[in-house]
Design brief:
Chain lengths: 616, 251
Amino acid sequence: MSSFLKYFPLKSYFPWLTLALGIGIATLPLALENAYLLRVWMLLLIYALLALGLNLLVGLAGLVSLGQAGLFAIGAYCVSILATKAGFGFFPGFVLSMLLAGGFGVMLAYPTVRVRGVYLAVITIAFGIIVENIAIEWSSVTGGTMGISNIPKVSLIGTQLSDVQFFYLIGAIFLVGFVLHYNLIHSRFGRAMRAVTQSEIAARSIGINPIFMRTLAFVVSAVYAGAAGALYAYLNNYVNPDTFRFADSVRYLLMVILGGSGTVIGPVIGAAILTYLPEVFQALGVWQQFAYGALLAFVMFVMPLGIVGTVVHWYGLLQPKRAHSSQPWPAPQAEVDDLLEHRIERDSICLRTSSLTIAFGGLIANNQISEDVRTGTVHAVIGPNGAGKSTFLNCISGFYQPTSGKVELLGQLTVGMPTHALARLGLARTFQNTELFGQMTVLENVLVGFHTSYKGGMLATLLRLPIFFNEERHFRNLAEALLRYVGLSDYADEQARNLPFGHQRRLEIARALALSPKLLLLDEPAAGLTHGEIEDLKSLIRELASRHITVILVEHHVEMVMAISDRVMVLDYGEVIASGSVQEVQDDPKVIEAYFGSAGTREILATPVATVNRLA
Amino acid sequence: MTEQLLRIENLSVAYGRVEAARGISLSVNRGEFVAIIGSNGAGKSSTLKAIAGVVKPTTGEILLEGKPVQGLPSHEMAKRGIVLVPEGRHVFADQSVEDNLLLGAYLHARRKSRDGHGLEGMYSLFPLLGERRAQLAGSLSGGEQQMLAIARGLLARPKLLMIDEVSLGLAPKILDFLFPLLTQLNRDGLSILLVEQLATEALAVASRTYVMENGRVTIEGPSSQLARDPRVMEAYLGKRAAAPKPPGASL
């Protein structure tokens, strides 16, 4: 029984919502008195399918497409040509049209390597225009402005479907699309897409390839558009270029935005309103367009997150507020012990840089840095603001490519490797100004850190195979354990952006630990922490080192650096001015001059200006 | 009794379901240097943001010179003389240092000619900024950005300057410059409300200090008294409160 329930989590709203939609679709033809209204409903479901696909692109991956009508056209023309010229049946043509549209999705995703936001929208507009133009001009294949008529009605197993039967076919395909849409949103892929949207830098640092995620989003949305286009061609038995214009692309985007982008049911509601409303407004005669526009403007003003998004937001406002509290950390957890267990030989070289140099224009930010970092040690990097410490971390973690020199991680040359590949090798990091996925919950932030540890692929995710549930439960338990480890359990369900700054740092560390890193780069982890919290941080870092995790620590909190570091490297103007044990560095006159300031500076200073002059 | 500049009563702030500040009451007298210390999540930043109008308080009263100002948007607060130097500095990264400063003087743009905004004064206070006046603010080091953020705040001619975490991510040498500078500004008559994680430093510069814990003010009083308070010493000052600081050690 329990294993059965696992597949039908009754406390979730989704199975009930799907059931309600299914019953609605099954009974609708009985309630409609004429064939015209049935047609409107078929159109509505087709647009809803299209909008669901577009929602994955807009709501999850944060990419705006104003060329969706082009993909819709490709699906429609593909089945039409196959059915009229090659005699294809419904299903082969349907599948091929989805594949073809998916292929164009890859093509559309390519510009995202360079272009984002409104600039990308312009490219998608261009795509839509090109498709429309080809449909008009390539008349030997597309029939030109006349289009393709005589598309046969759908036949299955030798019998031609009645209108009601075809409605049920569309309904069934819509429901499959609806469930897969949900399954994708609520999976590691959906999380990873949202992560890439909210902080691409952080997503890369935990092993997610943003290009792959954006391509995936484009392909899936294109497949949905292709499927919708194929159904549309069979519904009308006729296609021509008039139905695939820029204005149609805009309407599809409106469906998603109006209903609530990123929500499960929003696109369906948006599609329903924008398809059904013109029917209702026909009674208004010449005022039809005016009423349509005015209503749209009004709804978006009152409900800026779209209908469903805003209702969910309002519901959230009604939730009782309470004070949250953090716990001391690190709090030992058996699950974390297993997660962080590494069998690497201590004192081997974990990271070696040789003559590492990086220049930005004329500014040499890192100059000939050669440094060995041994496994299981805490290696601090200190120096004045602007000395090139963060640049050094960015070079090691693949965010910057060095101008010259070598970086070896665990014996492997890593120059030229992208950040996400380095993360998969076992390099994790935190950021000076914290890079969290602000609009995801605290628990999701850690969970997304396990993205590359999952073995179940896309098929297991979409079909909800047992491995999906097992892995999801496994990693959820680990993520909860990591939150207990850093003392943030109480915040698990809150959005990360609502955390105080110091707690955001802890969360970043928990997310980095989810990678089970061999090398952990911490960029100013103590900034914004109080004395007690810094004491906790010190014990965490020492504990990680005792687990053979190598830590490179960029930090200004000198007392902490001196207390926990095995070695200290001092940078000034991009160059190593000292490197050695804590004692050696502390007594080095060059370091005192460049960084600490001379002893008793604070008392001696008569005016602040004097210091500035010394600094300059 | 000295004149009260700012007084807040029973102020609460919440983000989503997280209640950050719960019934905070505090005051700043004209010309006073007041600090708020406490751990992360205590509600210090939220209190400052509510006073600056960046977030709307859920309950409570904010009185500036006796007049209620709670619920006003942040640009109105700035007009009335409450200026916030935000946590993490938030300089306009793609504009030059000079343009950043001119934006600080935005409220007073109509009153004076370009030279009269007080830019030169800022450059003599922060000579490093003068050297870099044409450079993009985003290319400055963390310490220089903090100087720029403070200078930008000063140019708005605040009655009350609020600074959230002056020390965040800064090297010791920069702090050796900034903390005395704040003391100097206060001596020249500026009222300052400082939120700071480095309790030792905050207690050294502020005349009066509030300690916040878990959204509430738990201890308040003259800084010198708090520095000797065992509760404060244990939680926020650590051993360093008793032992003299080693030369060159951190703040």
